[in-house]
Amino acid sequence: MTRTLRNNAWTLAAIGLAGAALLACDSEGTSTLSGGAHTYTPVESPAASAGASTATGTSGSGNGMVVTTPAAGGVTPGTGGTTGNTGADPTAASNANISGRQVNYGEALRTASLKLLGDLPTIAQIDQMAITLDPTAQATLYASFVDQFLADPRFSAKMIQYWRDTLKTGQQGAPVTGVPSFDTAATYAAEVVVNDMPLTSIFTATSGTCPTFANGTFEPADCGNNAPTTGILTDPGLMSQYYSNMAFRRVRFLQETFVCSKFPAEFSAKSVPMGVGAYTSPWDFDSIAGGPTAKINFQDTSSIICADCHTTMNHMAPLFGNFDANGQYISTGYQVQVPVIGTPMATLADWLPPGQPFAWRNGTSVTDLPSLGQAIAADPDVAMCAVNRIWDFAMSRGDIVNDLATVPPVVTQQFATDFTANGMSMKKLIREVFTSTDFVSF
C-alpha cells in the first residue's frame, strides 16, 4: 500500500517535467527511504539476569492481575511522568473499543519486558505481580519493574536496535577498511537515550558521536571524517548510506526520520496558481535555481510540486554536499553530482541563486552544519516526531512515514508537553509511555 501511494505521488509529480529535473527530484530511484543496500545483524545482548523466565504463559483475569479502568475522575493506574498524563483518549467514553478495555499489569509487564529487554520477565517478577491485588499497589510495582528494565544492560542493546530501525541503517559484519561503520549513528543515539541525555544531543553534540558498544558498555569515539561534528548529522556511515545526486537523499532522510513527514515540508497560508497547479511553498518562487541556463530548472512550472519541495530542500542540501560516497567531509569542494549529461560535480549555483541563505525552514536561516543542528533541535515538530515514534514502538505499530502509522495529536500531545518539560529526555519519555493507561490496558 505504501509503495503504491508513493509511486502514484511521484508519477503525478513527474507529469510534464523535463528529463533532467525528473532525475533531480527522484534521484534515489526507490519508492521508499529504505536506507540503501546495507543490512545489519542483531545486537548481541548481555546475558539475561539470573532467574530469567522462559515461560510463555500470560496472566489472566483469574489471578487478580486485571483491574477495570476507572471512570473519569477516578484514580488512573499506570500513570507515568510528572504531570499526571494518562495517555488516554479523551473520547474514550464514546468509543466502545476503548472504554471496554481493562488494565492488565501482568500482560503489560510481559510486553514491556520483551520490548525493553528482549526477554520475558523473571518468574519472581511474574509471581510478585500476581500476588499484588490492590490496584494502586499494582501500578506502583509495575512502574518499579519498568524502572528496572530501563537500568538493565539489555536495554542498551534494544535501544541500538530501535535506532537501527529508525535510521534504517546498520553494520553487517566487521567494518571494512576505507568504508565507514554503519552502526555508529544508531549506537550514539542509543547512548543518548540510555545515559539520559537530551534528544538535542543527537543534532548538536560536538564530540564522541561515533561510539562502539561491547559488553554492555558504550565506548565514546570521534568519527574522524574531517567534518565539523554535529551529532549524527555528520556521521560518516549515515552520509555514505544516503549518498545521492545533489545530497537530496540526505535531506529527505532528515525530514522523514526526524520530522515524521514527507516533503513538501512547508506551506504558505495562501497557494498561488502557477502552471497547471498551485505553488504552496512560503519561499519566493525564484529562491531556487532555475531558468534556461540552469543545469536543473527547479522553477519549471509544468510540475510545480517540484518547487514546493525543493524550495526547502535546496536551502539545506548544499550543507551536506561536501560529504563523499564514503562519508568523508571534503572542505575544498562539493562531492555530489548533478544528474545531467556528464554528471558534473555540483556547484552552489546548481541549488541556489546568488544571495540565498542556507536554511532549515523559511525564516530560520543557518550558516553551517552546527547551526543547522541547533535549528533542528529547536523545532517543536522534531520533538513531536520523537514522541510519536516512541508511541508507535510501544504499541507495536509500523513506521510513521513508510507505513503511514501516524498518531492523532490528541493521543500524544501531553506526552510531547512532558517531554519538553523534562529536558527532552527520551528515557523519561519511554517510562511515561510504558506506564501510561493506554499501554497497560488491553
Question: How are the SSEs ordered, and which strands pair?
Answer:
Layout: H1 2-14, H2 19-25, E1 66-68, H3 96-99, E2 102-104, H4 105-117, H5 123-131, H6 135-151, H7 153-167, H8 184-194, H9 201-204, E3 212-214, E4 217-219, H10 236-241, H11 248-258, E5 272-274, E6 277-279, H12 305-313, E7 358-361, E8 364-366, H13 369-377, H14 380-394, H15 409-421, H16 426-434, H17 437-440
Antiparallel strand pairs: 1-2, 3-4, 5-6, 7-8
Task: Write a concise keyword list for the protein shown above.
single chain, 442 residues, mainly alpha, two-stranded antiparallel sheet, two-stranded antiparallel ribbon, 17 helices, 8 strands, globular, disordered N terminus
Helix-residue proportion = 25-40%
Structural class: mainly alpha
Helix and strand pattern: HHEHEHHHHHHEEHHEEHEEHHHHH
DSSP summary: helix tally:
17
Per DSSP E runs of 2 or more residues, the count of β-strands stands at 8
Low-confidence regions: 1-24, 26-32, 34-87
Radius of gyration over all CA atoms, rounded:
24 Å
The average pLDDT score comes to: 84
Query: Approximately how much beta-strand content do the residues carry?
Result: 5-15%
Distance between the terminal alpha carbons, to the nearest Å? Answer: 28 Å
Main pleated-sheet profile: 2 strands, antiparallel
Global outline:
globular
Strand order of the largest sheet: 1-2
